[in-house]
Amino acid sequence: MLRLFYTSLYKKLISFLAVPNLSVKKMNLLEILIIYNIKSLINNINLKQIFKIHKLISFNI
Q1: 52: containing domain
Q2: Which superkingdom heads the taxonomic lineage of this protein's source (predicted)?
Q3: Number of domains into which the chain is organized
Q4: Cβ neighbourhood burial of 21 (10 Å; 0-12, 13-18, 19+)
C-alpha cells in the first residue's frame, strides 16, 4: 500500500515538475508537502545522484 502511494506520488512529481500550476489542483496538501521536500532534496544533489534515484525508483515500479 505504501509502495503504491509512493509510485503514484512519483508519477505526480514528474507532472508537477513539468507543469506545476496545473498539477497542484489534483493533489492533496500532504502530497504537495512531500513533493516540495523531494524538490528541495533534488536541488541539493547533483544530476548523477538524481539519475541513480530515478533508475532505482523506475526499476522498483
Answers
A1: 2-60
A2: Bacteria
A3: 1
A4: exposed
